[in-house]
Amino acid sequence: MHATTTTRRGHQLSETDARKMWTLALSAAARKAENVSDLSDLLLNMPSELRSELIDFSAGASRQGFFLIRGLPVGELPATPLEHRAGELAEHGSAGLLTLVADLLGTLVGYEDEKDGTLIHEVHPVPGEEHRIENSGSVAFDFHTENVHHPLRPDFLGLLCLRQDHEGVAATRVASVREAYALLTDGQRDVLRTPVFKSAYPTSFSRNIAGPRPSSGLHPVLFGQEPDLFMRFNSHTTTSDDAVASRALRALSEALEEVCHEVVLAPGDLVVVDNHIAAHGRSAFTPRFDGTDRWLRRCYSLRSTPRWAERMMPRPRVLPALMKITGVL
User: Fold this and answer.
1) First CA to last CA across the chain, in angstroms?
2) SS3 content of the chain, % helix, strand, coil (to 5)
C-alpha cells in the first residue's frame, strides 16, 4: 500500500466565511427547495473564493478527482443514531450545506429505489450491520464509483463529517483513474475499454429484491482519452466472465491502491468527489454504539438530468426507479 495521507489539500474557510456559510445553510435547509433556481440567491452569496473553486472543480478537469473543504460549522448534534431513519436532521444546517454545494456543482438528487429517494444520506455504523459493504458498516470498503450499476450515476458526491471515529483513524480513501492510468499496461487499458464488464446492484438498491442481485448491462470500465479519462468501477460488484478482463480489473485495483489519497475527515470537513474520475472507499474502524460514533452525511449531485427522466420523477429531485428506466440508456 502506498496511500498518501492528505492533510492540507483544498480550501480552508476563514471564520467569517464559515459563519456566512452556516447562515446560508440554515436558510437553504428551511426552504426545502424543489429546484436549483429556488436557491439561486443563496448560491450567489456563497463566499466568492469557495464558490469559484467549486465551479472550477465542476468542469471535470481535475487530475486527483476530489476537492476538500475544511472549517465548515456543523451546529448542535444529537447522539449518533443506532439505526438509519429517513429525515434524520432534515432541517439541520448540515443538510443546507450539502444542498448548496450539490446545487452549485449541478443538482442535488436522490434515487427512488435507494433509501426511498432520500436526498441526504446518513453514514454511520448500525449495530448488527458492521460487516455490510455500505454506509451502515464499519469494515473496510474498497474502491468504487457510486451507483456503478445505474445509467444516471451521480456526477459528484459529497461527504460531510459531523463526528469523527473515537480513535481518529477512519479515512475516506480516494483514488483517481487519471493518476492510476500510467501504472496500467497498454493491453490492460485496451481490455478495460471493452464492454465486457457488468456491475451488480449495490445492497442499498437491492435490500427488497428477492433472489440474486440483478446486474447492469455490459459496459467498459475505462472511457475517454487522456487527459480526460473516466471510470465506471466497483471492486465489490464489477466483474467479467472473461479471464483476461478479470485480471485487468485486479490490475486496476492495484493501480488505484498505489495512487490512493487517504483523507481523515474531522468535524466540519467536506470532501467532494468527481464520481467519473475518482473511486472512493473507507478504512475500517471500531464503533462503540455509545452515541458518539463516526457520523458523515452524504449527497449526490447530477449536472444534467434528461427531460424524460425529469417527467418520470416521483417527486422533485428524485430519479425514477430502475425498473421504470431499464434499457432506456
Assistant:
1) 37
2) 30, 25, 45
Q: What is the SS3 assignment for 299?
A: strand
Q: What dihedral angle (degrees, nearest 10) is formed by the CA atoms of 319, 322, 326, 329?
A: 40
The cell numbers describing 139, all together, are 469494515
Q: What angle do CA 189, 195, 201 make, to 5 degrees?
A: 110
User: Whole-number mean pLDDT of the chain?
Assistant: 94
CB 72 within 8 A of CB 265: no
Q: Rounded CA gap, 276 and 227, in Å?
A: 13
Which pLDDT score is estimated for 9?
Answer: 63
- Dist. CA 77–CA 163, nearest whole Å: 9
| Least confident segment among 3-17, 82-96, 147-161, 181-195 | 3-17
Distance separating alpha carbons of residues 317 and 311, to the nearest angstrom: 11
Mention every residue, 6+ apart, whose C-beta is less than 8 A from residue 125. 136, 137, 138, 287, 289, 293, 294
Neighbours of 251 (CB within 10 A): 19
The pLDDT confidence band at residue 139, using thresholds 50, 70 and 90, is confident
Q: Please give the Cα distance from 280 to 296 (Å, whole number).
A: 14
Contact present, 328 and 308 (Cβ < 8 Å): yes
Q: For 152, phi and psi rounded to 5 degrees?
A: -115, 65
Between 269 and 2, the more confident residue is 269
Q: CA nearest 84: which of 121, 34, 110?
A: 121
Residue 84's closest CA among 126, 113, 147? 126
Measured distance CA(205)–CA(270) in Å, rounded? 25
CA angle, corner 173, sides to 283 and 130, nearest 5? 30
